[in-house]
């Protein structure tokens, strides 16, 4: 699922933090299209900030071709450093995770490296992996046995986990594991198209919607509705809300600032 994986795992996250210092950029890396963020803690994780009309979109590119992007300690450190730094960057509205390796997004954990680990080192690695991806707020808890049933239902999840079989892109989309299935070579353009759509929306509203969905799925319906109301109340006194109303009345594109 190389091409599909890049789309389905081109994850997005919105930030709207004020007074948090952005990355310092080295001028030698600047170009008309992208800005490469520094410092990078791993050569296998390449970070680019898109510019011009795409300002606000940050692409995190996995680059470990010799292992098809299998996650080892070095890549994990790079990912964690990147996510923690982006969380404090008020200029990052959307994060898109992609792969530079043809026909592969991520082969999972580096089993060759894990083979050399002790039991305690394996446990530490797994805990670190879960906490790192929790920074993306995929779900409150990591773990395939819990995440997969929430996406595709218990019956399908049991079949996939018990058999360990691989599935094609179209089947992944049909069972709800992926949103799109696109031809090879079109994954990144599709992911960027989605990132641009999200980037044009109000970052505070996106953040509150994400919180309502992620946290609400873990509780009963009434508690989830109460949470939704609390999230909406967070938007009432924002400048972005007033800007959205003004733009609608004036029939123009809103200019959200995350305030």
TrEMBL record:
InterPro entries: ClpP/crotonase-like_dom_sf, Enoyl-CoA_hydra/iso, Enoyl-CoA_hydra_C
UniProt GO molecular function: hydro-lyase activity
This protein's record includes keyword Lyase: yes
Source superkingdom: Eukaryota
Entry keyword set: Lyase
GO BP annotation list: fatty acid beta-oxidation
UniProt GO cellular component terms: mitochondrion
Family: Belongs to the enoyl-CoA hydratase/isomerase family.
Protein's name according to its UniProt entry: Uncharacterized protein
Classification of source organism: Eukaryota, Viridiplantae, Streptophyta, Embryophyta, Tracheophyta
């Amino acid at each position: 699922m190389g091409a599909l994986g890049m789309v389905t795992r081109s994850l997005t996250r919105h930030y709207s933090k004020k007074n948090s210092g952005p990355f310092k950029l080295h001028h030698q890396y600047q170009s008309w299209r992208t800005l490469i963020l520094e410092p990078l803690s791993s050569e296998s994780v390449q970070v680019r900030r898109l510019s011009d009309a795409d300002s606000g979109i940050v692409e995190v590119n996995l680059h470990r071709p010799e292992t098809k992007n299998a996650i080892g300690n070095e890549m994990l450190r790079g990912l964690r450093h990147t996510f923690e730094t982006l969380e404090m960057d008020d200029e990052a509205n959307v994060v898109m995770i992609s792969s530079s390796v043809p026909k592969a997004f991520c082969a999972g954990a580096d089993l060759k490296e894990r083979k050399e680990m002790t039991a305690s080192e394996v446990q530490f690695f797994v805990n670190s992996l879960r906490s790192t991806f929790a920074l993306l707020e995929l779900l409150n808890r990591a773990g395939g046995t819990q995440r997969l049933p929430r996406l595709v239902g218990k019956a399908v999840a049991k079949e996939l986990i018990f058999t360990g079989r691989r599935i094609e892109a179209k089947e992944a989309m049909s069972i709800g594991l992926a949103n799109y299935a696109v031809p090879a070579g079109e994954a990144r353009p599709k992911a960027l198209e989605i990132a641009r759509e999200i980037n044009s929306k109000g970052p505070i509203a996106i953040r509150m919607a994400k919180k309502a969905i992620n946290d609400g799925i873990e509780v009963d319906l009434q508690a989830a509705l109460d949470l939704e109301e609390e999230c909406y109340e967070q938007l009432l006194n924002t400048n972005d809300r007033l800007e959205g109303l003004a733009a609608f009345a004036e029939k123009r594109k809103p200019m959200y600032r995350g305030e």
